[in-house]
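Risk mitigation, structural track. In case the binding assays with S-adenosyl-L-homocysteine fail to produce interpretable data, a predicted complex structure has been prepared as a fallback.
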Amino acid sequence: MKIIASFVLISILFFPGFSLCLAAENGVFSRLRDRMVKGQIIARGVSDPGVLKAMEKVKRHVFVPERYRAHAYNDHPLPIGKGQTISQPYIVAFMTEALALKPKDRVLEIGTGSGYQAAILAELVDEVYTIEIVGELAKKAKQTLEKLGYRNIHVKTGDGYKGWPEKAPFDAVIVTCAPEKIPRPLVQQLKEGGRMIIPVGKAGSIQRLVKLTKKDGKIKKHEEMLVRFVPMVKGSD
Ligand code: SAH
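Fallback model:
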């Protein structure tokens, strides 16, 4: 069995065009996912059972370009085209856990990218609204998510800086690109008791991952860790 699994993995790594038996391929990816959850996520302290279950379930390799599939479960971000990246698995899990999601929550994500983070969120809550500024990425993510059968993810092309006022307020907001300052509309669109997780800082430098909570109309901030995200770009009005 081990020999077959190694053969399949080697084929995926070195002959991405090689047509493999789907079941065998799924088996290998499922084992890589399991290793990712244990070695990268639980080992670093993420413990929310719902988050771990979602990370175990969602097929990350479906969200990355074909040539990176074999690396989908590695401990780093990967290119997804248009100069953008899918975040490191641990960061996805950490940010999701920080939102302390409940099943009835409505969540806003800024920076759809591949759609992977949106899929993780959709495993945990009722409705996910996600905004992507690059039209081509939004279209691709929408196709991937539809193919996987997600009916509770709403993808929009646009400038996430302004949030999604028609669908506000949100129980949680997650931003996966880094603005220099926390966008005011996103704070306004957060419900009382709502949580936001957002990287803040200059483009191309180390940023601070900040968690905000809105309580009695006041905002509390907590710095979680240092991170490096792609910048939040401004859309044209
Ligand atoms: N969450 C994604 C990864 C995000 S990468 C995933 O799971 O794959 C960050 C994304 O933010 C990029 O796709 C980038 O195009 C997008 N982005 C940058 N500025 C933005 C803005 N102002 N509004 C919406 N999306 C933006």
